[in-house]
Amino acid sequence: GVSFGVSFLLLVLAAGRTLYLGALRAGALREAASSQQLTREPVPAQRGAITDRNGIDLAVSEPAQDISATPYLVKDPLGSAQRLAPLLGQSQAIVLRKLSEHGGFVYLARALPAKQAQAVLALKIAGIAGAPVMRRVYPRGTLAAQVLGVVGTEGNGLAGIEYSRNALLHGRSGQRRVVSDALGQPVSITEVHPETPGASVSLTLDANVQQRTEEVLGAVGRVFNPKDATAIVMDPQTGSILAMADWPQVNANDPGASSPEALENRAVSFNYEPGSTFKAFTVSSALQQGLITPSTSFDIPDQIQVADRTIHDDTEHADETLTTAQILAQSSNVGAIKIGLLEGAPRFSDWVSRFGFGARTGIELPGEEMGQVLPLAHYSGSSMGNLPIGQGQLVTPIQIATAYAAIANGGILRPPHIVQSVGGRRQPEPAGHRVISAATAAALRQMLEGVLAPGGTASEVSIPGYALAGKTGTASKVDPATGEYSKSAYVASFMGFAPASNPKLLCAVVVDEPQSRSIYGGTVAAPAFGQIMSFALPYLRIPPG
User: Fold this and answer.
1) How far is it, in rounded angstroms, from Cα 275 to Cα 389?
2) Going along 450-527, which residue ranges are E strands?
3) Cα dihedral across residues 204, 263, 230, 508: positive or negative
4) What does the pLDDT look like over 265-286, one tens digit per residue?
């Protein structure tokens, strides 16, 4: 009887407990079970690759892990720091400091490569966790770093193409449900939202032309010790950019090692006075209006008075007679001013805008400046003594390269472009419009050959088999302290193309403040143009001519 009574009592207690757990505590227990066993994990989207025109990878994404710590769960901070430091590539002191923090969460490393991350997690240290992310890698290191830009720790582009095309490259993260057993081993994984990878972006750049251009700029940096230098190689017929390089170089995989200035893409952001390279536009507009021909003669004294200003030629000379072609070849300031005065300020000002100066070109890169053009209403009596020779207005390298492309291609001003295709779909090439006639463009090309001929300002530069055309520029910079032109700070530049009669390739070189050996466009920038073109012309199979 007693044993039956005890058994009955135990049965009643068990039934009560079952009822309590099954009905009254069911919700709370279900939540506890799911919190132990069910987690939702983000699935990072694969960022689209950036390639050159031939499919060579310039930027790719690889699986990685953000490694974090919950410091209060780490039982032996010192021992853990000793084991973790070599795998994280950090000093023991830094890791220990992070593991000793009072907060509940701290990053030990962001976007650690998958292999390294696996080694860290294999240590199975309580309180150390990994979260899958993608890591941006630039396989060619310094190549086109300022064009490509950088990606921040949150996976968004912060500069360059990575920034301007972020919406296309980024993709959308997904989410998955992971059910784990009591030991934390995954039992089942279900995709809740699939991730959408970003689109790949193919650029018009040619990695080999880019490489050569960067090597040449590096040599310019070593020899002339400038503040910085930039070069653009372009197909003048289409506006495609084949190379866009800046010096000093930046390692795209370690952008923090460089100054913020070095990360800037000077080809689109550097505002500078073009100096004599601008004379080609002074001459072209007068030619187009029928005011002069290449053989028109001018009396050229050593200096010219315009209102209250006296402007000299570069070298002293007796009074001489020069044709339009000789004025351009020898870069005569007095001659260019005389041609500008023939046009008059209103027409000259109109032509400056027609060639695209004072407006962005619209290339698909962030940070493009507009240059600065003096509005006609602000011209003073002496303005026509400095504007026709490229003083008193600012241009960017991409702007003036684009304007020279119009002379090279037969008179069409066409916006430059650097994105060839997105997700395998070719981007439409921007339409251009005619600014000068084909005949005017041809006459200019012929005159610009004289710059590289004996007696021209770049007569030292030649490439066997190819007729070259171009223009040198050496412009004083304005000293910000005095507001006057500096006697020591110059911008040396060269704009040129080849073959002269039917140009297939254009190259612009701009060197900011060369310090040693020389300051002139003809001796600093023109030889760099020659070295870049002597590689690129045969490499691109452009026939001699």
Assistant:
1) 6
2) 469-478, 485-498, 505-512
3) positive
4) 999 999 999 999 999 999 999 9
Q: Which residues pair with 234 in a beta bridge?
A: 241, 506
Angstrom distance (rounded) from CA 397 to CA 246: 11
pTM: 0.86
> Exposure pattern of 16-45 as b/e (b: 16+ CB <10 Å)?
eeeeeeeeeeeeeeeeeeeeeeeeeeebbb
pLDDT in tens, 225-245: 999 999 999 999 999 999 999
Written as one string, the DSSP assignment of 250-296 is --TT-GGGS-TTTTS-HHHH--B--GGGGHHHHHHHHHHTTS--TT-
- b/e map 512-523, b = 16+ CB within 10 Å: bbbeeebbbbbb
Is the N-terminal amide bond of 499 cis, ω within 30° of 0?
yes
The separation between the first and the last C-alpha atoms of the chain, rounded to the nearest angstrom, is 120
What is the chain's mean pLDDT, rounded?
89
Q: How far is CA 498 from CA 14, 189, 237, 280, 467, in A?
A: 96, 61, 12, 16, 6
Q: 360 near 370, Cβ under 8 Å?
A: yes
Residue 339 and residue 367 in contact, taking contact as beta carbons nearer than 8 Å: no
Alpha-carbon span 232 to 399, nearest angstrom: 11
Region class of 274: left (phi > 0), else alpha (psi between -120 and 50), else beta:
alpha
